[in-house]
Amino acid sequence: MKLGCVLMAGTLYLSLVVLWAAQTLLAASFKTLQCERPVHTEESSCHMEDDLTDPREAGFQIKGYTFSEPFHLIVSYDWLILQGPAKPVFEGDPLVLRCQAWQDWPLTQVTFYRDGSALGPPGPNREFSIAVVQEADSGHYHCSGVFQSPGPGSPETASAVAVTVQELFPAPILRAVPSAEPQAGSPVTLNCQTKLPLQRSSARLLFSFYKDGRIVRSRGLSSEFQIPTASEDHSGSYWCEATTEDNQVWKQSAQLEIRVQGPLASAAPPTSNPASQKSAAPGAAPVEPPGPLPPPPTPSSEDPGFSSPLGMPDPHLYHQMGLLLKHMQDVRVLLGHLVMELRELSGHRKPGTTKATAE
After folding, report:
1. In terms of Cα–Cα distance, which of 25, 17, 153, 155 is closest to 77?
2. Distance from the CA of 214 to the CA of which of 183, 272, 298, 356 falls in 20 to 30 A?
3. What is the model's pTM?
């Protein structure tokens, strides 16, 4: 009987020891979850200190309750784990990775890796940080270290953690409204189009506009650049730039060519030469041979006063008038030959006519 009581007491004592040890281990591994900014209800002990102003949280409200954004809780039973960010990481954000040891035991020769490559020499620092991450910083990270007393005293390696750096906003696209080839005098609006993700919709972007390598509008909140009255001086190569307020992330658009069309010039009616029309009339024969024409002025580079009828130098008109003057000279030469042949023909016909009359 006494032996049975002793065994029962021993069993009870061992159960209490095991229960105490289990509670100690659980207390050491538990994390505290805090309720931040809940909505006050009759059955809730959490109270909201200020009003809800973020429009992104409106979708988490259901009949007076507000729910926080979800997050993943991963519990590991390893000597060494790598703690990464719980929220999505976007380009421009800081990144902090922590090599956490069991029971926070001291570590030495801590090394961080990305995709199997060491990011630096071993050292005592348990944290690895990047002040401004880019998409190229994405990869699988892990750490290794050597435990000091009271740990196992051997090198340990943590499991890899995937870190994906998301694009904060795509490169902007520059568009011209209504057209990239407007008529002179019409308005033109340049739109610098890009979009922030839903998780960062509250962030603000600043926009700048450039033309032919020169800035035409400095950074501002408006994504539009307006030209009220376009002229030929506004023609050129334009592009825009979008940047965050802290200037950590900035991106440029592709170049857009703007060609302002000038007013259409009205063509002058063709002029005809009355003398040419008279000489070209059918059935009109000259009674007397025309006298030699006065030599027309010939265009030359030495005559700076030669210009178009409109008073403005026109290389095309200059060439056409030169051809016209050459044709007039050719016509004058042909007329001269025609007069000489008519004189010779009349001289041959006069003797024959006199002989016939005498008979």
Report:
1. 25
2. 183
3. 0.53
Token pair in block for residue 357: 């009359």
CB-based contacts of 284, cutoff 8 Å, min separation 6: 278
**pLDDT by 10s per residue, the chain, length 359:** 444 544 455 555 555 544 554 454 444 444 445 554 443 333 434 444 344 444 444 445 566 677 666 655 666 667 899 999 888 999 999 999 999 998 888 888 999 999 999 999 999 999 999 999 999 999 999 999 998 876 667 788 999 999 999 999 999 999 999 999 999 999 999 999 999 999 998 899 999 999 999 999 999 999 999 999 999 999 999 999 999 999 999 999 999 999 999 875 444 444 444 444 444 444 444 444 444 545 545 444 444 444 444 444 555 566 677 778 877 888 888 888 788 888 877 776 655 444 444 44
CB atoms within 10 A of CB 165: 20
Residue 117, SS3?
strand
Parallel/antiparallel/unpaired status of strands 161-163 and 139-147: antiparallel
Query: Structure tokens of 84?
Result: 């990464």
- Cα angle 135-140-145, degrees, rounded to a multiple of 5: 130
Region for residue 54 given its phi and psi (left: phi exceeds 0; alpha: psi -120 to 50; beta: otherwise): beta
Nearest to 93 by CA among 166, 170, 171, 202: 166
Short-list 276, 191, 286, CA closest to 238? 191
Amino acid letter, 326: K
Q: What is the b/e burial string over 320-335, where b = at least 16 CB atoms within 10 angstroms of the residue's CB?
A: ebeeeeeeeeeeeeeb
